[in-house]
Amino acid sequence: MERTADRKKLIVRTSIVGIIVNLFLVVFKAIVGMLSNSIAIILDAVNNLSDAMSSIVTIAGAYLAAKLPDKKHPMGHGRAEYLSSLVVSAIILYAGITSLIESVKKIINPEMATYTTVTFVILVVAIITKIVLGTYVSAMGKKVKSSSLAASGKDALFDAVISTGVLISAVVYFALGISLEAYVGVLIALFIIKAGYEMLTDTLDDILGRRADSELTKKIKKLLNEEPEVRGAYDLVLDNYGPEKNYASVHIELNDTMTVAEVDELTRRVEEKIYRETGVVLTGVGVYSYNTGCDETATIRNNVQEVVLKYDWALQMHGFYVNIEKKNMRFDVVMSFDVDYKEGIAALTEDVKKLYPEYEVSITPDVDMSD
What we know:
The chain folds into two domains: about 1-210, Cation efflux protein transmembrane domain (Alpha-lytic protease prodomain-like, Up-down Bundle); about 215-365, Cation efflux protein, cytoplasmic domain (Alpha-Beta Plaits), CATH 3.30.70. The protein is built from ten helices and six strands, in the order αααααααββαβαββαβ. The chain has helices at about 1-35, 40-65, 80-110, 115-145, 145-175, 180-210, 215-225, 260-280, 295-310, 340-355, and strands spanning about 230-240, 245-255, 280-290, 315-325, 330-335, 360-365. The strands form two sheets. The protein has a three-stranded mixed beta sheet, with helices on one face. Strands 4-5-6 form a three-stranded mixed beta sheet, covered by helices on one side. The longest helix is centred in the first third of the chain and has 35 residues, at about 1-35. The radius of gyration is 29 Å and the shape is elongated.
């Protein structure tokens, strides 16, 4: 809970800094834009206003996400932050589309702008300010793993590019008398729309459920395999309920001679270890038994594995166990998304039965969920 509270404080503090800076830029750019009759500067001010609104939504999302679990939401409210990211992306898209419409109107009915020394100073200050703000917010977003902050930081750096474009158009007009105002406005609008679209799709990936982070899954498996009793860790599934709120289940392969008491002691130990090292809550630990009885089982395992892995779509075989007396064997196969699992199981079963026709074969398909 302490980690969640600290995270919320960092997000709120960073967002407040963003709000103050953006409102400061809105006021100055709006005044300069109206005095110079510059649509590009006015739209730049609108963009900064949308950034301030986005920061407000980010704060609201952080507070909702930090709420403690309750009876209705036993996994907490962490996913509320993804909803706030959706709202932020909608605000950015709306600002971009509105800016695009206004810029096109100015192309059809152009109006000349008048620039002064103050205009150039304001634009230079805005560019420097946005670079500093974007770098700071991006660093904080990465630190606390907040998609909203990361997007806001990226957007601020985009704003610096946009303001640079406005500055260049002002210099061109001042030096050559060529007005690029409305066209720069279109460019600004397209940048805003692009940023909003990318944030929208990225957030939707979080809500729909994206592939688990490769570094995290490898670390969890490494920690499990460090235990002397564990012969392998498989079927790791991560369920995300918000930033830094991950729950996982996994299968570990153990010798068939271990007692229930020994397995219980081991699973409790690894659950504590995984949470301590990664912050992931290991909610379920399944067990595969490993034959230790005779050499014949090892021979059968190797023969079956050779048959299974000849297929490119068969990525891994694990959880193998054979009962020689009862003449049955069971194992899992991780399959890629390139094959229909029913067809895959049928092909594997047929091949294994050719090798061991007297055995009952049970194959469980696993999805390629993590690295």
